[in-house]
Specification:
The protein has about 300 residues and is α/β, with parallel strands linked by helices. It has two domains: about 160 residues, NAD(P)-binding Rossmann-like Domain (Rossmann fold); about 130 residues, N-(1-d-carboxylethyl)-l-norvaline Dehydrogenase, domain 2. Helices cover about 50% and strands about 15% of the residues. It has 14 helices and nine strands. The strands form two sheets. A six-stranded parallel sheet has the order 3-2-1-4-5-6, with helices on both faces. A three-stranded mixed sheet has the order 7-8-9. Helix 9 crosses helix 12. The longest helix has 29 residues. The protein is elongated. The relative contact order is 0.09. The structure holds nicotinamide-adenine-dinucleotide (NAD). Nicotinamide-adenine-dinucleotide (NAD) binds next to helix 4, strand 7, helix 7 and helix 12.
Length: about 300
């Protein structure tokens, strides 16, 4: 028998993820304070509840897909200890798929375990497209004994599930990966702009770098100039894709983790600053590869 699932946070990602669980035959009760998100999920077969705790009442699995660590901790605790932790069935599997700070993930897992539950962090990559198609990559922080149950419930939403270690390890993997991505996109953009000024065509630089030591995902899949990779966002006016504010958020989380661990990350710091500025201005609605526009504007006098 499939466990009863509560799904808290039915936004751009959570909505289609919950729909895929329903499609796979799970009984899913959901909560989102946004009426639009709640009604879209209801149409997809999710049973609506009036609060996170009401959705989680006696659930054996509780999945959260929320904007930040504060949201996750608030939903877990409730206002007077009347949150998800108190409402879920004893020993429930609590799977947080939000992208949050590693310290918040560990705090949430600690609180969940103290309340007698099993805690898992399982942030994702793959965006809204992957959420809709059920092909997300999940980066899982969980105790070994919980893996079988975790894999089973993630399967309808997943392309890949990677076990990264115990609680917090999933979030750690996500922010470390996205720090590489943010830095590499800026590096590729600077190379194309320098090439332009040297009279090099985009295609020539692509043909060399994509088969040489400059090869990376930011170049060969999400190429920041139109042409060489027809499916990259640059070919559709930088419609995301992976929006710049989400990159700025993830780099911010990486820098918080760098602070708490006293890790020197000078490239990461710079990338975080560059994306923070871009995401609050021209880049607010654009794919993160649109950063090449900011690089072009950044004249070295
Ligand atoms: P979103 O803003 O579309 O959805 C978040 C939802 O949470 C909203 O519908 C909001 O109403 C709801 N919410 C807020 N407070 C709540 C509460 N107390 N109880 C229940 N619901 C509540 O955001 P999203 O794009 O779905 O992203 C969700 C998470 O996934 C974020 O942590 C984000 O960083 C991460 N993520 C997003 C993407 C992406 O491409 N969108 C990719 C990977 C990871």
């Amino acid at each position: 028998d499939k466990p009863r699932v509560a799904f808290i946070g039915l936004g751009n990602m959570g909505g289609p993820m919950a729909a895929n669980l329903v499609e796979a035959g799970y009984v899913v009760t959901g909560f989102d304070p946004s009426p639009a998100a709640a009604s879209a999920a209801t149409e997809a077969g999710v049973t609506p509840a009036d609060s996170a705790a009401a959705a989680a009442r006696d659930a054996q699995v509780v999945i959260t897909m929320l904007p930040s660590g504060k949201h996750v901790l608030d939903v877990y605790q409730g206002t007077n200890g009347d949150g998800v932790l108190a409402a879920a069935a004893p020993g429930a599997l609590l799977v947080d798929c939000s992208t949050i700070a590693v310290d918040d993930a560990r705090a949430a897992a600690g609180a969940a375990r103290a309340a007698g539950h099993r805690a898992v962090d399982a942030p994702v990559s793959g965006g809204v497209g992957g959420a809709t198609a059920g092909t997300l990559t999940f980066m899982v922080g969980a105790a070994d004994g919980d893996l079988e149950a975790v894999n089973a419930v993630l399967e309808p939403m997943a392309g890949r599930v990677v076990h990264c270690g115990d609680s917090g390890a999933g979030q750690a993997a996500k922010i470390c990966n996205n720090m590489i991505l943010g830095i590499s996109m800026i590096a590729v953009s600077e190379a194309f702009v320098l090439g332009e000024r040297l009279g090099l065509t985009h295609q020539a630089l692509f043909d060399v770098a994509s088969t040489a030591s400059g090869q990376c995902w930011s170049l060969t899949t999400n190429c920041p100039v139109a042409g060489p990779v027809p499916t990259s966002p640059a070919n559709r006016d930088y419609a995301p894709g992976f929006a710049s504010p989400l990159m700025a958020k993830d780099l911010g989380l990486a820098m918080t983790a760098a602070d708490t661990t006293h890790t020197g990350t000078r490239m990461g710091q710079l990338a975080a600053e560059i994306y923070r500025e871009f995401a609050s201005g021209d880049g607010a609605a654009l794919d993160f590869s649109a950063i090449i526009g900011a690089v072009r504007d950044d004249q070295n006098e």
